[in-house]
Design goal:
Elements (H helix, E strand, L loop, with lengths): L2 H16 L3 E8 L12 E3 L9 E4 L7 E7 L2 E15 L4 E13 L3 E3 L3 E5 L6 E6 L5 E7 L5 E7 L11 E9 L9 E9 L3 H20 L1
Antiparallel strand pairs: 1-4, 1-13, 2-3, 2-13, 3-5, 4-5, 5-6, 6-9, 7-8, 8-11, 9-10, 10-12, 11-12, 12-13
Length: about 220
């Protein structure tokens, strides 16, 4: 292997190491939501103050991403994208709309054996859904379960039959506009790892180096 090839490989390794504290996942609807069909990744009953089940599809637009940032013990989770939905009408939504959203967990995030959890309900954690048609905003905060856990993101195939490896996100939210009262308001979605560009580049470089080595031999 010549010096130029060694230098390029070293740069690829450095880039991969530098981005190792950022993990990106594409988000999708979960196949086992209790109110499906239609399938969804977020359910917020009584969001509009009408007592109706409201569900929102992640797959309709398909631009939702979850990003985990790790800097030592400083860990945060950011979700953003576009949702489509509204009142649950059985096989289809009632008066569906597009909503853009951002949701952040910047405090209480901890690593687990298979992923990350969010403990407690710090005020900085929460998000906003914005209705595209008129810009109306709906604010949300987090809500912890009996174990003081507000959000779980693990590769455990949660509630996916015959699957114990897929990434699944689930957590409890509360509409600040219409707080929950015996209603379901939560995230439930599956996710897939988005390969880091540095990893792809390194894989391609590895193939190139193997090819060169074979030609030399």
């Amino acid at each position: 292997m010549n010096r130029n090839a060694l230098a390029i490989a070293a740069l690829a390794l450095t880039a991969t190491a530098a981005s190792a504290d950022v993990f990106e996942f594409a988000m999708y609807n979960h196949p086992d939501g209790n109110a499906a069909p239609p399938f969804y990744g977020l359910r917020v009953d009584n969001m509009f103050g009408n007592g109706r089940i409201n569900t929102f599809s992640i797959d309709h637009v398909g631009d939702s991403l979850l990003t985990v940032h790790e800097d030592g013990e400083d860990i945060s989770i950011h979700m953003e994208g576009t949702l489509f939905g509204g009142g649950d009408g059985g096989d289809a939504h009632v008066n569906p709309e597009l909503y853009t959203y951002t949701f952040d967990f910047t405090d209480g995030v901890e690593k687990t054996g298979e992923g990350w959890i969010v403990v407690g309900t710090p005020e900085v954690n929460g998000g906003t859904l914005t209705r595209v048609s008129d810009g109306a905003e709906f604010e949300f905060s987090t809500k912890a379960n009996g174990d003081d856990v507000a959000f779980i993101f693990e590769a455990d195939g949660h509630r996916i039959s015959g699957d114990s490896d897929s990434w699944v996100g689930r957590g409890w939210v509360q509409s600040d506009t219409n707080p929950r009262s015996q209603s379901t308001q939560d995230w439930l979605f599956r996710a897939e790892v988005v390969p880091a560009p540095g990893t792809i580049a390194l894989g391609a470089m590895g193939g190139l180096l193997v090819t060169r080595r074979r030609r030399k031999n």
